[in-house]
Write a structure and sequence with these properties.
The chain is an alpha/beta fold. 43% of the residues lie in helices and 9% in strands. It has twelve helices and ten strands.
């Protein structure tokens, strides 16, 4: 009898325990359902970067066994017309008066978005915008912006997208050392990727000659080796995150004036570049940088007549001496340093002949027609166009766009 009562008590205890466990599970489920669906990107209580969590939308697809980074067979230059190939070489500089939709439908290779494209938009509106752009493209787009930190930010100056703008490179190191430089790069990549931006036109590799130089506030500082260490960390971190990088502004700004407004001459000896300016670019290339942006400076020791962006000798140095085999692009061809130099004439043919794979320009129609005509007239070989487009498709494949 006692044994039966004991068994009854044990059974009752077990039953109560099961009921309580079930209630706990239900309570926990209800609690989880009330949590926000997305993680907060930034800390509003601290100017330092504190969040490095990867948002759901930035997950990088894994490469399958049937798809390698070199596999661009579904988008092959052999199946493209000349016009389609040339259009891939255009990175449209999306200023306010540019018809972005028209540019995409004409097959351009990519877009460079400026601050007005993000102005007053929240995260989901930006995602809708970039997703729509991609949906219109026959070949997936490079969608880029300049998010250097400090003076040049396009995205984080919108407080709907980040509580505070990203800091300048030198300030990051000053207040948080390499750890903060890395976490800043990670968060920047996470944010841009979550918005549908697959390339950040950074890092700045320039080594200024003094604090009075135009480029100074955008740089890591006046020491080439320290800048090289910064570039190495940023490029390798961007590569880990799966976002495209662009070293700029080759062959180095030095003490030149602002090429947005003036023609700039750099009269230094070639040894100054070998012992200084080239060093950060060499380290960035060794770290796997995807692209290099060439400046509009006229560097007399390399080419006394043409701006670097239109100079074959400058591009030959980048390809042959520094060993870069990725995508070379021009700085924005609408800058005054170019329009003043060419007296407003189209520069597209000059840019391709110099060795650029992508042209950053707003006059995409004019550029495409100019290059196609130059090929048809035998001024530019179609083999050179094919080489450039293969590099661009390889880059897109590396970014898991193809």
């Amino acid at each position: 009898m006692l044994r039966n009562k004991l068994f009854a008590v044990i059974a009752l205890v077990l039953a109560i325990s099961c009921v309580l466990s079930a209630c706990s599970l239900i309570a926990n489920k209800n609690h989880c359902d009330t949590l926000p669906s997305e993680a907060t990107i930034n800390s509003e209580d601290n100017n330092l970067i504190t969040s490095t969590a990867l948002p759901e939308t930035t997950t990088v697809p894994e490469t399958t066994d049937t798809q390698s980074p070199d596999d661009v067979s579904s988008f092959n230059v052999d199946t493209m017309s000349l016009e389609e190939k040339v259009a891939q070489m255009i990175l449209v500089s999306c200023h306010e008066d540019v018809d972005v939709i028209d540019a995409i439908t004409k097959g351009v290779g990519g877009l460079c978005l400026y601050a007005f494209s993000f102005e007053d938009k929240n995260k989901y509106e930006v995602i809708d915008m970039t997703s729509y752009y991609q949906s219109l493209a026959n070949v997936p787009l490079i969608i880029s912006t300049d998010e250097e930190g400090g003076d040049v930010n396009r995205v984080s100056i919108n407080d709907n997208l980040r509580a505070v703008p990203f800091w300048a490179p030198a300030d990051l190191f000053k207040y948080g050392g390499w750890e903060l430089v890395k976490s800043d790069t990670e968060e920047k990549a996470d944010l841009l990727l979550s918005l549908g931006i697959n390339v950040n036109l950074a890092p700045v590799c320039d080594v200024p000659l003094s604090e009075d130089n135009y480029i100074y506030s955008r740089t890591f500082g006046m020491d080439a080796n320290n800048t090289a260490a910064y570039v190495t960390l940023v490029v390798s971190t961007m590569k880990e995150k799966g976002i495209g990088s662009t070293l700029k502004h080759f062959p180095g700004y030095g003490g030149s004036v602002d090429t947005h407004e003036n023609v700039a001459y750099d009269t230094r000896d070639y040894s100054a570049f070998e012992n200084g300016d080239f060093i950060p670019f060499q380290h960035g290339i060794s770290s796997g940088a995807d692209s290099v942006l060439v400046s509009h400076n006229i560097v007399t020791c390399m080419d006394a007549e043409m701006p670097a962006s239109l100079s074959k000798p400058v591009h030959d140095i980048l390809r042959n001496d520094l060993g870069f085999d990725g995508v070379i692009m021009t700085d924005d061809l609408v800058m005054d340093a170019i329009t003043q130099f060419t007296d407003g004439e189209s520069t597209a043919t000059y840019a391709v002949l110099a060795g650029n794979d992508m042209l950053c320009c707003e006059n995409y129609d004019e550029a495409i027609k100019s290059i196609v005509n130059a090929v048809n007239e035998g001024v530019i070989s179609e083999a050179q166009i094919d080489d450039s487009v293969n590099r661009i498709l390889k880059w897109k494949s590396d970014l898991n766009l193809l």
